[in-house]
Specification:
By secondary structure, the chain is mainly alpha-helical. The protein has 15 helices and no strands. The longest helix is centred in the first third of the chain and has 31 residues.
């Protein structure tokens, strides 16, 4: 609330701007996350530990630079999916039972500032989780050889991080929808039921090249497969299906609208 008190518009007697409201909500949510360091640390190391346990022992992958690049992008997207769905599907449901959050919902702010603030906070902590994963990949495997020998341009690395965060938005919106529609106990069950099928059919647990034809057709229309393929393409240049971008944009729009609707529905039912 300190930020709002120093906002020039507020000191002049005007309502705070949308930017000031979003900034205040973002700051508050980042501080809320940092109050539980173990949650931040466990979320940050989850993709790296998965890489260490399941990818690093496989020399057939780590000795092939392009194969390990694909594995890195795939696991990074898996970490973003996990952080967004579990962090916000369950976190928002728990917040709705919190008296302070309930008070904030009574303020004439609207659904947009808190929703944007949650997206910015989620992307910030997911970015932190990607750093150790790519660092371990660079130090312990041949993943970055294509960049050092000139086979791939260096801009693909920062571009991949940006793509990973943006491609995770549909899962953030899906998590928010679950959180606004369910109680905390129900949200835990729903997120678990949704998470594993989405991760599997999206090719995050098993490479989609191993899918039978019928499963591959289903996989191509899921948001997880589109996010996975786009990330792998940007990092390794391995190519992607023509439907990848339209499918990802369509799911982002659908889940974004659902998240705003669920927020307004919850606001209307609890504070009318």
């Amino acid at each position: 609330m300190t930020i709002l008190q120093t906002d020039p518009a507020r000191s002049a007697g005007q309502p705070p701007s949308l930017f000031a409201l979003t900034k205040a909500h973002t700051t508050a949510q980042i501080r809320e996350q940092l109050r539980i360091p173990i949650a931040v640390i466990s979320s940050a190391i989850f993709p790296t530990m998965t890489f260490l346990f399941f990818i690093l022992p496989q020399e057939s992958i780590t000795d092939n630079p392009f194969a390990v690049l694909m594995a890195l992008a795939q696991l990074a997207m898996f970490g973003v999916l996990s952080a967004f769905l579990f962090g916000y599907g369950i976190g928002v449901a728990e917040d709705r039972a919190n008296p302070w959050t309930t008070y904030l919902r009574t303020l004439p702010v609207g659904a947009l500032p808190p929703t944007v603030a949650r997206a910015v906070t989620a992307m910030l902590f997911s970015f932190i989780a990607l750093l150790p994963l790519f660092l371990i990949g660079a130090l312990l495997t041949r993943a970055f050889e294509p960049f050092t020998d000139g086979s791939l341009p260096w801009w693909r690395i920062p571009a991949t991080i940006v793509v990973l965060l943006l491609a995770g938005l549909p899962f953030l919106f899906l998590g928010l929808t679950i959180g606004y529609l369910c109680t905390s106990k129900v949200a835990i069950a729903v997120v678990q039921v949704v998470f594993f099928p989405l991760a599997f059919v999206g090719g995050m647990l098993l490479p989609p090249m191993m899918f039978p034809g019928w499963l591959n057709v289903i996989s191509l229309v899921t948001p997880t497969r589109a996010a996975r393929d786009l990330s792998v393409e940007v990092l390794s240049g391995s190519g992607m299906h023509v439907s990848t971008l339209p499918v990802l944009l369509a799911w982002t729009l659908v889940f974004g609208v659902l998240a705003l609707w669920a927020n307004k529905r919850d606001q209307g039912r609890r504070f009318r």
